[in-house]
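Deviation from plan, reported transparently: uridine-5'-diphosphate-xylopyranose complex.
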Amino acid sequence: MRISVIGCGYLGAVHASAMVELGHDVVGVDVDGAKIAQLAAAKPPFFEPGLPEILTSASASGRLRFSTDIADAADATVHFVAVGTPQTRDGRAADLSYVDAAIEGLLPFLKPGDLVVGKSTVPVGTAARLASVIAGRGNGATLAWNPEFLREGYAVRDTIEPDRLVYGVADERAAAVLDEVYAAALAAGTPRIVTDYATAELVKVSANAFLATKISFINAMAEIAEATGADVTQLADALGHDTRIGRRFLNAGVGFGGGCLPKDIRAFTARAEELGRGESVVFLKEVDAINLRQRQRVVDRAIEALGGSVHGRKIVVLGVTFKPESDDVRDSPALDVAVQLKGLGADVVATDPQGIENARLRHPQLSYEPDLDLALRDADLVVLVTEWRPYRDLDPVRVGASVRARTIIDARNVLDPETWRAAGWHYRGMGRASGASVLS
Ligand code: UDX
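Because the crystal trials were delayed, the predicted structure below was used instead.
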């Protein structure tokens, strides 16, 4: 099939390359000329494991092109809209201007039988509105909503082998077209659920709301665990054995960040309020509040660890991205903690395997040191805020020899407290028993 992907950011660039893997001819379109030039040279403008490989093979096959001119989408019969829906200035609702502009841009080129497929995360009701915009033009094209559930760090796999496909459609033909697009994934056994527009839109926002709730739930338990001397990681393991609950997304720590969960729960709340149903999701405000509190708890812990003030003390912040295997620093809890500590007068040195460039653009006031060993030298305090593999694998004995004081705050609960304590470190996790050896 001939496919266009409008918007070649994170979602679109991965989707365009993955569609070639699934056997289609694809043109990726974006208004950002620099981004298109990089993609056309098979160089992803961001870090995503596996993307360079599929981008290179897709480009070499001659079945993937990139363009800044939306007219190049005219040959395609299926048009994915994968543009961003950032937070509006007031920090609540979703800004739909890019989605609206993408549809407007496509309208002159749509032909009878074309299918426009929304992938962006949008407030419930958007698809129905856009379907009538398209129908109003009378060019015989229709709309489907096919939300994307990909995780950064696993985006390629999540796109080629998704857990499920959700089609929000207004007619059977649209579902048949999507079946053809995803034939390879369906043949591999991917379940597909065909719904109306509103349900498809709601699946996406409620999935993210649920994941955010799960994380804030365990972080709330971490707060209680701390007050009682209990250990939240053992609690999560025990809870996780209940198959109704499951262990995933029960890692307590500094909380969630990134370009999706925080903004999506706020946009969902705003939309529910617009619909007169604000009270149904009022708990999401608490989910957000618990989440933001974790960042403060890490900062407070740092102050406490340094005897009441961080002023003038060297604090090494391990990680600036919102999670490992990504260079994304959007709403990153790690960066927020680093900035807060700096604001309190600490001599903060932040390090990260991939995120320094993006972090520097946002927070040039921080000091960055890409070399982990150099960063750690003479530290008064180490704070692990993003659980990259090199930080999980740190040898407490070796690191202990180069720091000024052996104090570590493990804000992701990924280190073994016993090993670190045995190497002479003062170890503090989040909601973990604070000293006494735990029988296993
Ligand atoms: C999320 C959804 O998982 C994905 O389905 C959706 O399409 C986009 O939003 P992503 O933002 O890539 O994906 O990251 P995710 O892996 O969900 O992690 C989100 C945040 O939660 C990260 O900051 C992560 O560190 C944090 N997290 C995750 C926890 O704090 N604890 C956990 O147990 C799991």
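The chain has a mean pLDDT of 96. We consider this an acceptable substitute for the interim report.
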